[in-house]
Amino acid sequence: MIPLFIGGTGRSGTTVLGRTLSLHPEIFTIPFESRFIVDPYGLRDLIYALSDEWDQYHGHVAVKNFMELMHELYPSKSRYLYKIAGWKLYTKFHISPPKYHITLDGKWKDEKFFNYKKVPFSVLISRKKFGNIMNNFMNKIILTEYNGYWQGYGTAISPRMYVTKHFEYEEILTLARDFVSQIWEEIAKRYKANVVAEQTPTNLNHALFLRDLFPKMRFIHIYRDPRDVVSSYKRQSWGGNSAVEAVPIIKNTLLKWEQDKKELPEDSYIEISLEELVSNTKETLQRICDFIGVQFDARMLNMDLSKSHSGRWKKDLSEEEVKLVECELGWFMRAKGYLD
Question: What pLDDT, in 10s, does the model give residues 82-95?
Answer without folding.
Answer: 998 999 899 999 99
